[in-house]
Amino acid sequence: MKLAYYPGCSLSTTGIEYNMSTLAVARTLGLDLWEIPEWNCCGASSAHLTNHLLALALPARNLAIAEEAGLDVAVPCAACFARFKATEAAVKDSAETRATIEEVIGRKYEAKYTVKSLLDVFVNTVGLSQIKTLVNRPLEGLKVAPYYGCLLVRPHKITQFDDPEDPVTIDQIMSAIGAEPVYWGYKTECCGAAHPTVVPEVGLKMLKSIYQGARDAGADCIVTACPLCLTNLDMRQKEVGEQNNTQYNLPVFYFTELVGLALGHDPHTLGIDKHFVDALAFLKNKGFLNPVQNRRDSE
Amino acid sequence: MSIEAVKADKAASQENWEPKILVFACNWCTYAGADLAGLSRLQYPPNVRILRVPCSGRVNPQFVIRAFQKGIDGVLVAGCHPGDCHYATGNYFTRRRYLVMQRLLEFMGMDPARFQARWISGSEGPKFQQVVTQLTQDIKALGPNRKLRDME
Amino acid sequence: MLKNLEEVRVFMERINLTPGLAQAKPIRDSLKEHCGTDVGRCYQCGKCTAGCPVAFAMDYTPREIVRLLQLGLKEEALKSKTIWLCATCDTCSTRCPREVEPAKLMEGLRQEAKAKGLVADKRLDLFNDLFLQLVEKYGRVHEMGLILKFNLLSAQPLKDAGHGPGMFLKGKINPLPHTIKDNGEVKQIFARVRALGGEGK
Amino acid sequence: MKRVGVFICHCGTNIAHTVDCEKVAKTAAEFPHVVFSTDYKYMCSEPGQMVIKNAIKEHKLDRIVVASCSPRMHEPTFRKCMESAGLNPYLMEMANIREHCSWVHPDKEKGTEKAIDLVKMAVAKVVKNTPLTRSSIPIHKRALVIGGGIAGIQAALDIADAGYVVDIVEKEPSIGGRMAQVDKTFPTLDCSACILTPKMVDAAQHPNINLVTYSEIEKVEGYVGNFEVTIRHKARSVDVSKCTGCGTCWEKCPTKVASEFELGLGTRKAIYTPFPQAVPNKPVIDRDNCRYFKTGKCMVCQKLCPTGAVDYTQEDQLETIRYGAIVVATGFDLFDHSVYGEYGYGKYPDVITGLQFERLINASGPTAGKIKRPSDHKEPKTIVFIKCVGSRDEAKGKPYCSKTCCMYTAKHATLVKEKIKDSQAIVFYMDVRTPGKNYEEFYQRAVDEYGVQYVRGRVSKIYQKGDKLIVKGEDTLLGKQVEVEADMVVLATAMVARSDAGDLARKVGFSYDQHDFFTEAHPKLRPVETHTAGVYLAGACQGPKDIPDSVSQASAAAAKVCGLLSKNEMATEPIISAVNESICSGCGLCISICPYKAIDLKTITERVHGKMLERQVAAVNSGLCQGCGACTVACRSSALNLRGFTNEQILAEVDALCL
Ligand SMILES: Cc1cc2nc3c(=O)[nH]c(=O)nc-3n(C[C@H](O)[C@H](O)[C@H](O)COP(=O)(O)OP(=O)(O)OC[C@H]3O[C@@H](n4cnc5c(N)ncnc54)[C@H](O)[C@@H]3O)c2cc1C
Ligand SMILES: Cc1cc2nc3c(=O)[nH]c(=O)nc-3n(C[C@H](O)[C@H](O)[C@H](O)COP(=O)(O)OP(=O)(O)OC[C@H]3O[C@@H](n4cnc5c(N)ncnc54)[C@H](O)[C@@H]3O)c2cc1C
Ligand code: SF4
Ligand code: SF4
Ligand code: SF4
Ligand code: SF4
Ligand code: SF4
Ligand code: SF4
Ligand code: SF4
Ligand code: SF4
Fold first, then answer.
1. Domains along chain A?
2. Is pLDDT at D622 greater than 90 in this prediction?
3. Given D463, D495, D527, which residue is the final one in a domain?
4. pTM of the entire predicted model
5. What is the residue range of D176's domain?
6. Which residues form a coiled coil (chain B) (predicted)?
7. D367 shares its domain with D484
């Protein structure tokens, strides 16, 4: 299965382990990810907040390149996914918008192919049963809080992905690899996006309620599908804990990392050593780092 | 300028030309509304002639075409507000037919504005007054109807 | 939170509704056109605010912003911190029973506030500007540069300094800017967008 | 040769002031077929009518035109006048030269000119008039009530008391409806069963009432006074004539399933009555769940029944009965709140509906009246009520207000405070609507005497945290986000139409709105009638309603039924549609157009080239046709015509005006 792949800015920097784990796991799952050559930043919320047309045009250039190659596009980052979807919808909706966008980007783009979140690709293109059969290190006893954030599921009209109030794709993937997703109320709560950096007095409080929610639900760790969410939840955890005289000790993973682990990949290949909240030690404690037979990396 | 327009121009310049307008009025709403306008002594131009029908849904497009053929200058079909039809659904048919009719008239080379449909309830005397006043003005502006005698 | 007496006074001042109400209809119409959402439909149920993850920090709750707009008090909304604090998470829009979309209003108001120079919280605005400058220049975002520059310009140079080395060591930040080989195309996009209608909407 | 007389009325000066009546009369005398024309001061007065009668006699008039006021005023007067002069009353037309002319046009010249036109049109029309005769249809003096809730029971009792036989067809094994599920009733808090049970028993024992339970309407044919209704008696598997209601069978039946009546909070057996006070108190076997029907084994109930009433071989029976009138009282359902993801999609066991709450506080309910939450049967201390769930919510539910939930929520909160002394009852609301006698007082008592806490705002999210439900809202009066840790949440879900409401309406042949509530003939002035003659509405099937409203409407519907049944026959207007069979192609287009289902196809035999051929043509049922004329326009062959307003009559008017 060949798909165009748009890693986005974060996956080459703060979210590098998302990229590493995605590429590693994709290979095992038989996904051929073709990175869009010379892709550009999608503009993220900054463009969205500043100028409507800019926010549509920046993603459109990438989509146009993928369209030239005749491929659906897989997007791991939730923020990029939301922006791409908005562009796709706008172009489909109105010929006028399409013309303007084509003029601005200097390329043809007709939204002939579909933008898919990586989660969607895992659940609906690869399939849960396929993942299940490839597991050789089931993460039994791992209680994870699946965290989707807001951008994957909203606005539902545009993302058309999973359920806006109770999304389940991460939950399903976690169950498929033997982990135990907990039910909690913060699945789609916002992580604050740029707020923890830009307006920390607000952003850190937003994070606090999420940590608290995961802890109350009895989770050992949090799983996400968004580099922005992960960076916020991971990097700020200590700080927020200190502010509130507590330690949350909730490692934060990309779902691809846990899938990779379950498929038998080496945690370093997956980038699990790159987290702020010590994920390696945590996994070791849980007994998930014992060598498995038939390790994927040796193939 | 179309032939009709040229003729209209000529006729309109003839002094004292007054249009004749036929109103198909539903017995339960618009006819009663016109009665109320009378009861309230609301004045309006004397150009309209009301033809009572049980329901606006009774108005066959052929009646309208016949009126235009015979030289009427404007036709109004008026009945109960959508949802208020005395017969539950009659005025929905009217609404649908109205659009078809307008297109047909246009095809026949008439200004579709000569044919209008309006919803006027039994309590809307003032609305009746206002609608026919406006209609009379509109039709006056269009000038006399070239008779469609030769059509069909 | 009421910090001092003066704030109390301003907060409690009686509003003369007459001038605002005269504006209410045109404001409602223009919002309908520009934001695609109709404040007139809101029945002030508060469901938007109830679910908003940032409402605790706002000077007006999202519902109150809609109320200001209904009453024609748009200036007040434009001057609010709320519109800058909104995280565009879309929770409000998703749940509104009247299909009003407060998130879209916030977006529209921000663009207008910026155009009118009424930015109540400069930090988020600055962040967005810097972000886009990077995209225009390099085609991609260089997060290290972004954060350093933001902290410098927002006068909190030492903030996040603690995270920097960790990031660096984990290979998460690259000291050199990322770029795409030929960024001409992206620069073009910015130029054309500007030509078509400038920065604001 | 037709002989038309024209009579121009002055109406004192009302007409004569701005219309030159004499001139109109003179001009009219010249119109074709007019043999006599005159004007007179007051046409409707006794002497005025004498003028007409004398002229008819003297000039051998066979039809007349009266130019005077609106026909909506004096058409009946002049029709009677025709009759007493020995002419068919429908050979008369009126020209409205008062309301439509003299009163609105001050210019006498223009007014006169218009009056002449109007008279000309009327003359042209009357020439084409044909005699029409009113017919009459017999009225069958028996009524059908569909649905045995409080509305249906009340309507049946009132009709029966007036001396008419009435059948209640109820699809469940017992009558009682929703009210049987409710515990106490606002605004007086008297127990629902205490006031409903006696009514159910009255209905069962009334000599004029037949309870037809566990039965449904299969087909309705005919029309007012003469409905032919086919009823399906569903196989009960119990011979009611033998059963004594002893209860042995359902005590011993080994199969337990979730009870519909208890809304899943309790269980019942496979052979069951829905609730202890059921009327009739005779069980049915739920064949989908009964072991015998599933596996062929068991038969415990049959073995133990002391009267040999259990009969597995019963089959559905169809019965056709003739009725003069029908009252539809099929009530309502509750909105399914599982579309609310933010409230847990109906997955949290302790988020329940108001009707489930009624069962929880009901002494004969699954918890014997102790408020226990479903998940762990603990007594909840903090209960949150959320109003307008599914109501007033276009995004997820219905735009309308359900009318009863403000009141029953106040009732529920009061009962919580009464039953659990150290409890908190918190109501999230947008508005409190209490328009009824003693309703506002009831709500205020909940607040000031019982200490129910009202918080203005719609809840955005509920989620489970441990054994608590976290409820997040805004207090919009404070402008602050608020949160409650609740033990149980009760949703005031919208009242919606029964899922089969549309089907029933189509079967019986009356209209319903976009929410499937049944449509009354006029929202203010004919609230219990439908557009279909002889079919009436009562209770919540017409729109959300509480018990007092349902009962009043039921009595009103009963009054209408009695009014109808009190007559032996009913006159029908002759202004109805007629088919010209010779040109009808039998295409059937007209059938779906008719809002009253008055048109059917029938088979006729005719001789063509010496051979007898059968073909289908349209037939208009004179009992059903209301004379709207919609069908006449739909017919491509112009086979349909509306008597009194025929194509020829209308075209004659058009021509008269234009020439
Ligand atoms: C939670 C709750 C609490 C309430 N509390 C109060 C209160 O305290 N006071 C108050 O005044 N009102 C109260 N109400 C409102 C009250 O329940 C209604 O006003 C009342 O039940 C309406 O009666 P009905 O006969 O119209 O309908 P229903 O009670 O619904 O009866 C309709 C009957 O028709 C039968 N039926 C349905 N379809 C068919 C069919 N196709 N063929 C044959 N039979 C059919 C049904 O089985 C049912 O028996 C409450 C409502 C709710 C939801
Ligand atoms: C401002 C206003 C606006 C309203 N608008 C609406 C609306 O838009 N829609 C709506 O549905 N409702 C409306 N209503 C309500 C509506 O007016 C009433 O529901 C309705 O008039 C009640 O009718 P009734 O016959 O019961 O009483 P009334 O209209 O009061 O009639 C009672 C009659 O009894 C006569 N009478 C009184 N005492 C005696 C006596 N001792 N002996 C003999 N005769 C007596 C009176 O003279 C009167 O003619 C409105 C009410 C108000 C005040
Ligand atoms: S949720 Fe919608 S209707 Fe309710 S207050 Fe917010 S904007 Fe208004
Ligand atoms: S979009 Fe903005 S206003 Fe709406 S809920 Fe999210 S943060 Fe609050
Ligand atoms: S018939 Fe009509 S117009 Fe003539 S006097 Fe009587 S009320 Fe007046
Ligand atoms: S055991 Fe027999 S008589 Fe007794 S209730 Fe059951 S069916 Fe009726
Ligand atoms: S035969 Fe059916 S109804 Fe009778 S006792 Fe057995 S399971 Fe129950
Ligand atoms: S009655 Fe009250 S709770 Fe029910 S829908 Fe109306 S306002 Fe809401
Ligand atoms: S006139 Fe109207 S009611 Fe009568 S048959 Fe025709 S459509 Fe039906
Ligand atoms: S009456 Fe006309 S429409 Fe009806 S079946 Fe006959 S031809 Fe068809």
1. 2-117 (1.20.1050.140), 130-285 (3.40.50.11810)
2. no
3. D495
4. 0.82
5. 135-234+316-331+498-572
6. none
7. yes
Residue B85 has pLDDT above 80, yes or no: no
Q: Hey, whose CA ends up nearest to atom 4 of ligand 4? A: C92
Residue D490 alpha carbon to ligand 3 centre in Å: 22
**Pocket lining: D490 vs ligand 9, CB cutoff 6 Å:** no
Question: How far apart (Å, rounded) are the C-alpha atoms in residues D78 and D88?
Answer: 11
What domains sit in chain C, N to C, each tagged with a CATH number? 2-115 (1.10.1060.10), 122-195 (no CATH)
Question: What CATH number did the domain enclosing D478 receive?
Answer: 3.50.50.60
- Count of other CB atoms within 10 angstroms of residue D448: 9
The protein residue with its alpha carbon nearest to ligand 3, atom 8, reads: C42
Identify whether D657 is part of a domain: no
Point out the ligand nearest to the CA of residue C66.
3
* Cβ-proximal residues to B146 (8 Å cutoff; 6+ apart), any chain: B3, B4, B7, B8
Same-domain pairing of D247 and D309: yes
Looking up residue D35, the CATH number of its domain turns out to be 3.40.50
Average pLDDT of the residues in D366-391: 96
Is CATH 3.40.50.720 the classification given to domain B17-142? no
Per the model's pLDDT, the better-predicted residue between D74 and D610 turns out to be D74
Reference D473, options D357, D561, D343; nearest CA is D343
DSSP calls for D336-399: -GGG-GGGTTT--TTEEEHHHHHHHT-TTSTTTT----TTT-PPPSEEEEEEEESSS-TTTS-S
Q: Is residue D651 part of a domain?
A: no
Q: Mark yes or no for CB contact A185/D470 under 8 Å.
A: yes
Task: Verify that D517 and D565 share a domain, yes or no.
Answer: yes
C105 touches A at CB < 8 Å? no
Q: Could you tell me how many residues make up chain C?
A: 201
Per residue in A169-221, pLDDT tens? Answer: 999 999 999 999 999 989 999 988 888 888 888 999 999 999 999 999 999 99
Tell me whether residue D107 is in a domain.
yes
- pLDDT value at residue C200: 37
Task: Identify the residue among A147, A183, A211 best suited for mutation to test binding to D, counting D beta carbons within 10 A and taking the highest.
Answer: A183
Domain end among D572, D602, D617: D572
B137 is written with which tokens? 């003005």
Q: Do D394 and C98 touch (CB under 8 A)?
A: yes
Does residue C39's CB lie within 6 angstroms of at least one atom of ligand 3? no
| Lookup result for tokens 């030492």 | C158
CB-CB under 8 Å, D651 with B88: no
For residue D461, give the chain C residue with the closest CA.
C51
Q: Which two tokens stand for residue D272?
A: 């069951």
Residues 161-180 of C with CB under 8 A from A: 163, 166-167, 170-174, 178, 180
Segment D122-135, tens digit of pLDDT? 999 999 999 999 88
- Backbone CA torsion sign across D67, D73, D75, D80: negative
CB burial of residue D54 (10 Å; 0-12, 13-18, 19+): exposed
Cβ–Cβ contact D633 with B under 8 A: yes
Determine whether A150 is exposed, middle or buried from the number of CB atoms within 10 Å of its CB (0-12, 13-18, 19+): buried
* The Cα angle at residue C181 between residues C177 and C187, in degrees rounded to 5: 85
8 Å CB contact of D345 and A165 = yes
Domain count, chain D: 5
What ipTM, to 2 d.p.? 0.81
Q: Is the pLDDT of residue B122 over 90?
A: no
In this structure, are D49 and D106 located in the same domain? yes
Give every strand in the sheet of A2-5, ordered side by side.
A32-35, A2-5, A73-75, A115-117
DSSP state of B120: -
Confidence of residue A298 (pLDDT cuts 50, 70, 90): very low
Q: What is the pLDDT of residues D572-596, one digit of tens each?
A: 889 999 999 999 999 998 998 888 8
d(CA A71, CA C28): 43
